[in-house]
Structure of Thiamine-phosphate synthase:
Amino acid sequence: MIADLSLYLVTDPDLCGERGVVETVRQAVDGGVRIVQLRDKTATDAETTAQLLELSRVIDGRALLVVNDRLDAALAARKQGARVDGVHLGQGDASVLRAREALGPEALIGLTANNADHFEAVRALPPGTVDYLGVGVIRPTTTKPDHPPALGVEGFRALVEATALPCVAIGGVAIDDTERLRDAGAAGLAVVSALCAAADPTATAEAFVRRWRAAGTPRVLSIAGSDPSGGAGIQADLKSIAAHGGYGMAALTALTAQNTTGVSGLHVPLAAFLRQQLDAISDDIVVDAVKIGMLANADVIRTVAEWLDVVRPPIVVLDPVMVATSGDRLLDQDAEAALRELLRRAHVVTPNLEELAVLAGRSISGWADALAAAEELSAMIGAAVLVKGGHLDGDDVPDALVDVARGVRREFPGTRIRTANTHGTGCSLSSALATRLARGETPVDAVASTRSWLRESLRESEGLQVGRGHGPINHFAGLWARGGVETNRAPEEIRAEWWQRTAAVRASIDELPFIRGLADGTLARDPFLFYLAQDALYLREYARVLAEASRLAPTPREQAFWAHSAEGAIIGELELHASWLTPDEGVDASTFAASPAPATVAYLDHLRSVAFGGDYAELIAAVLPCFWLYTDLGRRLHAGEFGDYARDPRHPYATWLATYADPAFEDATDQAITLVADAAAIAAPTARDRMLRAFEVSSAHELAFFAAPFASAVSA
Ligand SMILES: Cc1ncc(COP(=O)(O)OP(=O)(O)O)c(N)n1
Ligand SMILES: Cc1ncsc1CCOP(=O)(O)O
Ligand SMILES: [Mg+2]
């Protein structure tokens, strides 16, 4: 088996301090360390053996365990039942040939190589003697005072280019080196102080792992059945993996004969052959994530479980295919029992409602039941459960990610996309999710971006015209629309780009006679009152749209924010009536009962149509210009950009203009921008485009709204 060396912890008893080596290792492995090297220069062989026994218990197969220098201690610990995977030897330590002979062909043997001569000597060794090289130091480090000269990243690159053996970079490695070292050919980062001296080794390891994953192309394996029509099974998985920027691999559990109208045949190869496929992959390729789909029988399931126990991939997403859409059970009792065992080896499971009911052992008659069942299942298996609401009745089809052990319970609201092209949706979703996780996204972000992509792929499925039944989704809708691999964008980048997109609208607003007159006080009373009456009409409906955003919001924080904003809009409307739209201000009853002007109707129609579409991200993009452009204008008016109205006691609109520069509203605007930019950052490209379109259309309506007092029959 090829070892996953991505994050390699070398221990140091001094740097681990009071926390101790064992506890540091436990925490670092919790955070994603894949290989641990016990390195203690002063311990006796007996002490090293005892430590290996303890570490082996704590690591419990979740990472590989090797020992520095002490071949005899490794052998002794193995004799006493410890799982010691191998040794790391330096140029002056025991011979790697002797280590191979003593530890056997399956052991992991690492060798230090710091210069061209070392690499030359490695080439002369019989193949299979050494499994990886430790190459460094990258930069000077006090952790090993007798270290060789520093190579730097480019020196490392030059050395490792010449070997096919995986090379880990060691010596002075910090988290900010991650991308450059991975690019230079490192198979992993070996660190001592960065983890041993970390205040929180779990969080630090997680941060390293995320950076490492984000810096490379994830190698994602689908273990599933074949659908020759290409919409489900491994064919769908491979498309999903590619659509999310992963390298896809597939081990076949079964061959089906099927198309978009149904399944007409099934052939299950021997489980031993599945194991052969799996071993062929893991002997040669580091598997960053596994997606597991259809498993035909108990033999197949147990084979997958045994392989997982050996390889321990860092991400396992299991789609427990066990109940057909018709409600028929697809697995016999023996297989169901084996599947329950397999669930414990998964990190995320993605059941539909029927499967969740069977696995949690309870009936599900609505979304509340589904959430309760997901909690129970998550607690039972110690993994996250992505419960999918697609099989609920009605237009609301939420999903939720529930992970009891890690305190996650996140709902993702959604409205049903009306299409018959749902073939392979579950397969596609789970493999996309595995790929997103393998790219270093947090589970919540990975679910959010996967859902955004899936909704896009469902929406764009009609154009494919595949089959007469339930056709496939369009896995590459985003890619084809963009002409490139979809990647997440930084929220700050989106914020800047979207603001830039409003530049022309802002410049035009600034030139409007209404704004100029408002600022210098020359604006006549009629257009002013016209504007206020339209504003009041607008705010009332805008509040309803904000309330819809609150209803669709995925988190309680966002839900509260939009609800609070809706309340603010209604209060604004009431205040307009109380302060300005009164007989005292010369407003007669007809102005009061003003009907919406064309600009108001058009703006509200746009907002309502986006709200009706039920897409939260698009909706919050549509409501944003009212926050952003208004705040910007208020800030600049207040700053005297259009003349110093605030200092002029005779200015007729001074009190009105003062309300523009309300700090609480500025703060709310900032929050709204952040929520929209965050949502856009993880949206699929076409979804992000739709958000931007909604935002730009609303911005144009803002301009028309400010222009309306002079465009409409105000003077009449
Ligand atoms: C992964 C890894 N690479 C290099 C070393 C250094 O080993 P060595 O050259 O034997 O020096 P000491 O660690 O024994 O001081 C390593 N330990 N691990
Ligand atoms: C064991 C070892 N071998 C070469 S450098 C080194 C120590 C690296 O420690 P750190 O990661 O703290 O720089
Ligand atoms: Mg050594």
Summary: DSSP finds 30 helices and 17 strands in the chain. Residues 10, 136-137, 141, 143-144, 147, 170-173, 191-194 surround TZP (ligand 2) (CB under 6 Å). The mean pLDDT is 91. The first strand starts at residue 7 and ends at 10.
